[in-house]
Sequence to fold (133 residues):
Amino acid sequence: MNNLNVLSSRKKGQTRLSRNSKLFKVIINAILDKKGENIVSLDLKKIPEAVSDFFIICQANNNNQLRAIADNIEKEVKEKCDEMPFKHEGRQAEQWILIDYVDIVVHIMLPEPRKFYRLEELWSDASSMEHNS
Fold:
């Protein structure tokens, strides 16, 4: 029930995150620390159907790196922002791990699923920015 409180307490029109927000920067740096590649953020704030303010999408080269990036994001966000993810998915399949912080949803993907699902194209109305070192 606590997870529902997080979602219901957020009101449209509240101050929303930006790429300069602490949470955003901590996530990007956690990805870079584990050598995540092709890091792209999509600003979804102007898209009414969007479930969050940002998607951050990155690529891992193998299952070990995929897990390492996800673990590092959760660890760094907990330590530096005192936030736990609302939800995470995909740790069993080890192809695409999603970490949901409500305002930011992180997608860590292996190359094949990333090519197949093409999230950047699916959300092409969003402004995008690359974050590679």
